[in-house]
């Protein structure tokens, strides 16, 4: 069982190096890395470290990624295309640069091997009360990003949102909508289906242009409107603490170590921030190394 790790990264070079090195402990794995185009220093430092490693592949067509923007989807799809074109892995997991492995490589491989026909993608049908306006506004309302001017972007989008509400205008969407966590885990067949579907149906990708937070609908809506729907399990295999604070999600600290490594069917955790607590990462590196 060969696993491809698809990583979206934008900061913390040393932490990203730690993540990449830990993933390379997973036998026969390959890493596909998209570094935010705004983060050139990060790209230079990481490429200097790993560009000669044939198990680390850098995405050349980089995007300026803003929170919840269409470029988040474009960067994700670039990773998917690169992995599909390689045709060397059996299973694929989308990660951020602030995720980290919390189980042994052998435990991860064993679990994926036993569940290779399943797609682990958190999902729920929209509208759903846990999202504002049931989540349907994420595709039906316009949103724009002005490069380098986040304050202006926020003001503009607030005005556009008010216009949508007052006018009642909504963009038309031609498919049933599903939402959930954007951190997916899928096999090659599902990956092939999605890459091919978008090639044959460019209007699907275009329906996500100029939207906000629709990255949490992109994979779900494609898979759950396809023949793969019965293979989708609503789980993302990640430990994320949305309740404890002081951040939401909570930045994982050394005091959380024992708890996160004992969770069943959780193989990654997020979020980590080495500027707040780097010791937990060191403990995880030791733990993974001892059990690899």
Architecture overview:
This protein is α/β, with parallel strands linked by helices. The chain is 39% helix and 13% strand. The protein has eleven helices and twelve strands. It has helices at residues 13-23, 40-50, 70-86, 105-114, 137-140, 150-167, 188-200, 202-206, 218-223, 257-262, 279-290, and strands spanning 3-9, 30-35, 56-58, 91-96, 100-101, 119-120, 124-125, 178-179, 185-187, 232-233, 238-239, 268-269. The strands form four sheets. Strands 3-2-1-4-9 form a five-stranded mixed sheet, sandwiched between helices. It has a three-stranded mixed sheet with strand order 5-12-11. The two termini are 15 Å apart. The mean pLDDT is 95.
Count of β-strands: 12
**Helix and strand sequence:** EHEHEHEEHEEHHEEHHHEEHEH
Structure classification: alpha/beta
Strand order of the largest sheet: 3-2-1-4-9
How widely separated are the two ends?
Answer: 15 Å
Largest sheet: 5 strands, mixed
Low-confidence stretches: none
Please tell me how large the radius of gyration is.
19 Å
Oligomer: single chain
| Mass-distribution shape | globular
How many helices does DSSP assign? 11
* Beta-strand content bin: 5-15%
Which percent bin holds the helix content? 25-40%
Arithmetic mean pLDDT: 95
């Amino acid at each position: 069982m060969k696993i491809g790790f698809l990583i979206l990264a934008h900061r913390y070079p040393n932490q990203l190096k730690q993540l990449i090195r830990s993933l390379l402990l997973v036998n026969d794995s390959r890493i596909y890395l998209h570094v935010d185009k705004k983060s050139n220093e990060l790209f230079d430092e990481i490429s200097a470290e790993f560009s000669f490693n044939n198990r680390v592949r850098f995405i050349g067509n980089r995007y300026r990624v803003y929170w919840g923007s269409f470029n988040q989807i474009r960067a994700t799809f670039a990773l998917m295309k690169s992995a599909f074109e390689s045709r060397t892995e059996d299973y694929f997991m989308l990660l951020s640069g602030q995720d980290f492995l919390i189980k042994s490589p052998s435990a991860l491989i064993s679990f994926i091997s036993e569940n290779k026909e399943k797609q682990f993608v958190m999902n729920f049908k929209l509208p759903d009360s846990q999202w504002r306006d049931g989540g349907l506004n994420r595709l039906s309302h316009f949103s724009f990003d002005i490069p380098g001017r986040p304050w202006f972007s926020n003001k503009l989008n607030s005005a556009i949102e008010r216009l949508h509400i007052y006018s009642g205008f909504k963009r038309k969407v031609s498919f049933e909508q599903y939402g959930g966590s954007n951190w997916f885990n899928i096999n090659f067949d599902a990956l092939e289906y999605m890459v091919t579907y978008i090639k044959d149906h460019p209007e699907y990708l275009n329906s996500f242009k100029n939207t906000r937070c629709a990255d949490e609908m992109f994979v779900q809506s494609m898979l759950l409107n396809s023949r793969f729907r019965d293979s989708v399990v609503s789980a993302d295999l990640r430990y994320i603490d949305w309740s404890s604070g002081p951040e939401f999600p909570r930045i994982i600290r050394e005091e959380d170590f024992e708890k996160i490594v004992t969770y069943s069917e959780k193989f990654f955790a997020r979020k980590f921030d080495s500027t707040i607590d780097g010791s937990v990462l060191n403990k995880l590196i030791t733990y993974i190394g001892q059990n690899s």
